[in-house]
Amino acid sequence: MPPGHFSALPGTSGAGPAFSALPVWVRPLASHDSLSVAMATAVGGLWGRCFPRVWLCRRAGPCGGRYYRAALCTELKQPLAIEEVAPRPVRPHEVRVDVHFCGVNFADILVCRGQYQERPHLPFTPGMEFSGTVLETGKDVSTVKEGDGVIGVSDFNSMAEEYIADQKALWQIPERVPLREAATLPVSYGTAIMALEHRACTQPGETVLVTAAAGATGLAVIDVATNVLQAKVIAAAGSDEKCKLAMQRGAQSSVNYCQGSLKEAVRKLLGSGGVDVVIDTVGGRVFLEALRSLAWEGRIVVVGFSGGTVASVPANLLLLKNISAMGVYWGRYRDQNFPVFSRSLSSALQYCQQGRIQPHIGAVFKLEEVNDAFLHVTERKSTGKVLISLK
Fold first, then answer.
1. Residue range 206-228, pLDDT digits in tens
2. Parallel, antiparallel, or unpaired for β 94-104 and 129-137?
3. Do the beta carbons of residue 159 and residue 370 sit within 8 Å?
4. Cβ(371)–Cβ(21) below 8 Å
5. What pairs with residue 70 in β-bridges?
6. Which band of pLDDT confidence, cut at 50, 70 and 90, is reported for residue 155?
7. What is the average per-residue pLDDT within 76-86?
8. What is the DSSP string of 307-373?
């Protein structure tokens, strides 16, 4: 992601590892404004070497305050560091959140490679989604109060023990929804709901083909399409193991697109009719075969390019079958159409509270294992949502 949030730039690959399975380095830092050249050199020299992990406890800060730990990208394409950061005061409209869990998204890895469409100034903290409890509110905050459980979205800076958010970027977690599960909802389920409901207008009984089906967004699409929209799902993934997981999570059929033509596999399942909706996060050859698998007046939604290749759309196919091709850059709705953006998150929370969706968490890493978490994703070992636990 978000997708849009999950997208790679043309010519880049989502397959090659960008982060070594190494321990994070730890050092105290008063603010994000200073960057040690020596530290950057040390991090750069870590490749191929192994050191014991270091645990850094909080310590007293200026004026009796406390520091908190944050993952920091100090140099592109290098392992992240853990640093102590001094908290700043909250402004009138802001909320300080004690972060419990932070999602790991492919966009976090791309931005730390310098390959994402947004390029924060170094050093920066990755992390686009989180769950936690409210520690403090500004004087003008009316939406949440101290102690409330919340989920939120951020601009690459929430992979830390504390995060300050505008109150508009937080959604209160309903009762009976654990913080762990809530952390999986913003990017993956927000994207799935936006793609299926808002863009593709998926109807009950329609057939949905989802690529990269065992990933976080893929499983969210299966969950929402099957259990909320009552659609039929064909899951397409890159291994038999991932296809099996997708079937266990609600897909009616599965296709391993590494073992032959996706188009032919869909034809064997459905005949000449084709699928009504495609949600594609892969791009390249997989996108083109999925496009050719669409039925009359079918809709294909481009979510990202995890395969590393952006395909060109053969416009004649759109014409012959009256096909619609569209995209979803979920995060941009926050600026362009906030009510729709907010509704996707509110719906995800509501579906979760009602027990209509069941997020799948594939792995949970500690903050000091953040580089291992990134490697887990880049080596395509991940299924479902990968989380960082801050507690």
1. 999 999 999 999 999 999 999 99
2. antiparallel
3. yes
4. yes
5. 83, 160
6. confident
7. 96
8. TS-PPPP-HHHHHHTT-EEEE--GGGHHHH-HHHHHHHHHHHHHHHHTTS----EEEEEEGGGHHHH
